[in-house]
TrEMBL record:
Lineage, uppermost ranks: Eukaryota, Metazoa, Chordata, Craniata, Vertebrata
Keywords, sorted A to Z: GTP-binding, Hydrolase, Nucleotide-binding
InterPro entries: Gpn, Gpn3, P-loop_NTPase
Protein name: GPN-loop GTPase 3
Keyword Plastid included in the entry's annotation: no
Role according to the record: Small GTPase required for proper localization of RNA polymerase II (RNAPII). May act at an RNAP assembly step prior to nuclear import.
Subunit structure, as described in the record: Binds to RNA polymerase II (RNAPII).
GO molecular function, one term: GTPase activity
Gene name for this UniProt entry: Gpn3
Amino acid sequence: VVSDIRELIEVDDVMEDESLRFGPNGGLVFCMEYFANNFSWLEESLGHVEDDYILFDCPGQIELYTHLPVMKQLVEQLQQWEFRVCGVFLVDSQFMVESFKFISGILAALSAMISLEIPQINIMTKMDLLSKKAKKEIEKYLDPDMYSMIEDSTNMLKSKMFKKLTKSICGLIDDYSMVRFLPFDRSDEESVNIVLQHIDFTIQYGEDLEFKEPKECDEDKSAFVDEYFQDHVDE
């Protein structure tokens, strides 16, 4: 079953409304707030059958997760309907090949985690589009040493003020170790399965059929990451 929010409201219609006069971002915010005030439409569209597995393709605008309450309201409503909810935060791997951009991606992921207050799986997408050199370079970002990145980043900064800020940000990320990324290659079936296993484990989907132990899951992840890069760098 596929439900399309455009059956309820559409950004283009909002932007074309002469009384509203919204641009793309304002139109999206208006649509999401309208959606939050009409969760009855969502309830009717979804139904609720035991063992339902529902995917929400959410907008990519980060302000919806950091500045506005609408996504948090959606999460809380789903939890009231007794759904187990897991966030899947996608970051384009082609964006993450430099220290500055990686730190920015981590902060965006961390901000969403804090705002939504739900388990979150962070994924580097489009690994299949990276060059051999980029794949080798990005390996260090999957299990990052933030203090090494401080040196990489601060050497490029002329201002002592920004050096101090960058050091504080990297220290915060490293001390709490809340954000780690899984590589995702849609052309690699094992890569897809590993990501799905982590999501299923997080929401304990099908727990009555098969119990999954965290230790085994972590070992699978580590082995997969090592094998993935060994196979692709040697190509």
